[in-house]
Amino acid sequence: MRVKVLGSAAGGGFPQWNCHCSNCSGLRHGKLKARPRTQTQIAFSLDSNIWFLLCASPDLRQQVLSTPEFAPPADDSSPWPIGGVFLPNADVDTVMGLLHLREFQSFFVFATHGVQCVLQKESKIFRVLERSDQQVKWQTLSSKGRLGCHFSENSSGPPDFICDTVPLGGSYPDYVSEQMLRALAYDEAAVGFVMQQEGKGFFFAPSLSGTSAMWKSAAETSDVTLIDGTFWSDDELARTGRSKKTAREIGHLPLYGPGGLLEQFPANTKGRKILIHINNTNPILNQESAEHRAVLDAGFEIAYDGMEFNL
Ligand SMILES: [Zn+2]
Question: Which of 20, 138, 180, 261 has the most CB atoms around its CB within 10 Å?
Answer without folding.
Answer: 261
